[in-house]
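Revision sheet: structure tokens.
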Amino acid sequence: MPPFPAPFFRWRPHPWHGLDAGPDAPRIVTAYVEITPFDSVKYELDKVTGYTRVDRPQRSSAFPPTLYGFIPRTYCAERVAALSGPEATRGDHDPLDICVVSERQIERADITLDARVVGGLQMIDHGEADDKIVAVLRNDLFWGKVTEMSELPEKLVERLTHYFSTYKLVPGGSDSTASIARTYGRAHAEEVIEAARADYRDEFEGPE
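Predicted:
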């Protein structure tokens, strides 16, 4: 049997390890979408198999304000934590999360898309850096020309901040362990992405 031509995959590639952050990263990145604003259940990539699994029902009545997933071949470890300052003692050892704004309703997950990075949220959870990169769908007819976090509506950023500050709360339970230390613009977001890509290489690829 002749070899399969690149970039053809004989089998489905692992969304975290088998895909790439994109040729124009960190400005424009590939995003793998795990959940949508219409999901009342939190879905999450199974890191061993590469398939999407049910993590838990959403614990509150809040739904994610945007598409939510991660950037392939990223990992939040020492370099990402260093960009968070003294608030974070380590990274969360997960792929770098990304929120993607789209004007048209995208109702299915387990997809990939190209996203233009505009900023991010510096989230700290149990002392771990758990940044949320914020981006817009590339070529979106409404948001496609946005290049900075400051160009997004203030109420949308407020909604994102509130969601991630509270989405782990259990009704009747204790206070949230997650907090948003600050929001930041495109330049810092690109630094975080590059740090997460370097952390990934250190963890999974080793020295050249």
